[in-house]
What we know:
Helix content is 53%, strand content 15%. It has 386 residues and is of the alpha+beta class. The chain folds into three domains: 7-118, Butyryl-Coa Dehydrogenase, subunit A, domain 1, CATH 1.10.540; 121-228, Beta Barrel (Butyryl-CoA Dehydrogenase, subunit A, domain 2); 231-385, Butyryl-CoA Dehydrogenase, subunit A, domain 3. Strands 1-4-5-8 form a four-stranded mixed beta sheet. The protein has a four-stranded antiparallel beta sheet with strand order 2-3-7-6, with helices on one face. Strands 9-10 form a two-stranded antiparallel ribbon. α1 runs parallel beside α4 (66-79), α4 packs antiparallel against α8 and α7 packs antiparallel against α10 (349-358). The chain is globular.
Amino acid sequence: MDYFLTEEQQMIKELAARIADEKIKPVAGELDEKEEFPWDLIRVLGESDLFAIWVPEEYGGLGGGVFEQALVVEELSRACSGVAVSYAASGLGSFPILMFGSKEQKQRYMPDIASGKRLAAFALTEANAGSDVSAIATTATRDGDEYLLNGTKQWITNGGEADIYTVIAVTDKTKGPRGASAFIVEKGTPGLSFGKKEKKLGIRASATCEVILDNCRIPKENRLGREGMGFIIAMKTFDKTRPGIGAQAVGIAQGALDEAVNYARERVQFGKPISSLQGIQFMLADMATQVEAARALVYSVARLVDSGAKDVSKAAAMAKLFASDVCMKVTVDAVQILGGYGYMREYPVEKMMRDAKITQIYEGTNQIQRNIIALELIKEADRKSK
């Protein structure tokens, strides 16, 4: 379908696609097998100005937004979502700075993020605080002109590799969700360390590990926004980044669909390609329709977010929910079409199926997305009835 991309957006998409096909796809299997963080590819993305996509021009960026970032994430995910999420997570870690940081904070951190010299990460999840953000236990205690951070963050994408961490910590336990605040913590700060790198089902090229804060002392100038804004900052950040998870899901699904179509054309059974069998044709038709529907929703929501619309939580949740569910179904179907070959690591669809699962889990499970959507629907109905 024609999504009426501008000339610049088309160039961005084509550049990302070329990097995906020429640089990422040939090494995707090796990165997955070795579970290596793709620093060489991250540098390529930086040199290609793709980290500058979502950063305003005044801070060394290209002035794009969520939609342009989604175009890149989709193309990279088509080749390897482990690489794609390493790229996208820097946006997750830097959006809070862009939205809530002071001019000084933006000038200090964003140019290096835009150039790809420094990666960012978002540290929110804990052992007992996943979907329930209000349950975070990491604390930030004011001590004169500084804060003392203590706690452990779990499953942090880009953990240990990133240089800049947006950390959500409790500054006032008596206020519940309103007692959380957001802070910028730099790698190398005394008291900041990292746990073991997790061994995962999928997206193995990305780094996922604990971020440990042990009497980590940072200046008050590193706080984002006012005290008590941490929960709002986290939720507003997810409104911007959930379409990116949708784009990741679309990219994985498109990659799996491409592999399934090519295999069906080449695989001969009963004297003819299996692509001539109606059972296979119907599967491919459904897969293609689902991928295109997911892409249309993700693109539409990304553009809505970039428009500056205030109430985007429901739409962002829909994009993430629908695209990730489609991704899981399409990758499973791709493995089925490839049959025994699809189950083997020699072929990329088994990796795509493993990678697909995380899109239904991180940045809020799909059950949480359904909660968000339903609650927003009820609120809308309540407002109309008054």
